[in-house]
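Recall that a protein's primary structure is simply its ordered list of amino acids. Everything else, from secondary elements to tertiary packing, is in principle encoded there. The following example makes that idea concrete.
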Amino acid sequence: LAKMLNNNQEFVLLDEQKVVMENLYKIVTKSSKLDNKKVIIVEGGAGTGKSVIAIDLLSKLISNKAMTAFYVAKSSYVKDNYVKQLTKDIPKFRFLRTLFKGSGSFIDSPTNEFECLIVDEAHRLTEKTKRSWFYYGENQIKEIINAAKVSIFFIDPKQSIDIKDFGTIQEIKKWANSFGADIYHNFKLKSQFRCNGSDEYLSWIESIIYN
């Protein structure tokens, strides 16, 4: 996975992305079995690099520390898209697919089964998990926090796509507190990398859209 990322320009970290990734890496790797659970919230709008950081962090945790870490997202399109990008020049990539999990994969997970779960697009999480015509589980956020020693939620608090979207910072903190977890909510990505827009221009756009 590390080799795939190093050869892929779409997953190169820039500026504040590097700073956030390095701080996340320190928190995860310094967490011991005796510590409280840790819940980390990373805020950022579209194009600020949340997914790039998530994938890079996954690579480093697995390759450098041999940790049980997974990338988690609700959307199968998101997961399949990253697997496709990462494996376009790699002939053998079956193991890579196992590192990408759906957000409803942890209904029956025992407490602290995994060392780290990296949740992308946390604003898309739902309360229950739909499979075919039926709904399972209690709450995806609760189940993810229960399953991992460290849970990292990348979230755009201003983005809502579906009426069933349940992921909010308030909901994440509520469940983190119920588990007695240490909460880190000091990571906010602001710079726009996808369209190379200046911070001032993006602030102007947001003032029109959200006010």
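The chain has eight helices and eight strands. The radius of gyration is 17 Å.
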